[in-house]
Amino acid sequence: RYAMGEAHFRAAEKAFIESLQIKPDFEESALALYDLYSARAEKKRALKLLESFQDQFGPRKSVAYQLGQYY
């Protein structure tokens, strides 16, 4: 089961990263990727993703909310 879950995680991660490559300011993809990283206890990676997103595209309410939840 773990291997199957890991494969699904990698596939989802790849899809969200590709989405952000196509449309870098698509906050729904950034938030979904943040959720994936958070679910895997990769908090530093998740935080870096949202901080970078905010730096590049300015403040977004939903991204700021997630950052606020982290702190």
The radius of gyration is 12 Å
Number of beta strands:
0
SS class: mainly alpha
**Total number of helical segments?**
4
Oligomeric state of this protein? single chain
Low-confidence stretches: none
Q: State the helicity in percent bands.
A: over 70%
Order of helices and strands: HHHH
Largest sheet: none
Measure the end-to-end span.
Answer: 33 Å
Shape: globular
Would you tell me the overall average pLDDT?
Answer: 92
* Beta fraction: under 5%
Structural notes for this entry:
This protein is mostly helical and 71 residues long. The protein is 83% helix and 0% strand. It has 4 helices and no strands. Helix 1 (2-22) packs antiparallel against helix 2, helix 2 (27-39) runs antiparallel to helix 3 (43-57) and helix 3 packs antiparallel against helix 4.
What's the quick description here?
The chain has 71 residues and is an all-alpha fold. It has helices at 2-22, 27-39, 43-57, 61-70. The longest helix has 21 residues, at 2-22.
Fold blueprint:
Elements (H helix, E strand, L loop, with lengths): L1 H21 L4 H13 L3 H15 L3 H10 L1
Helix pairs in contact: 1-2, 2-3, 3-4
Keywords:
71 residues, mainly alpha, 4 helices
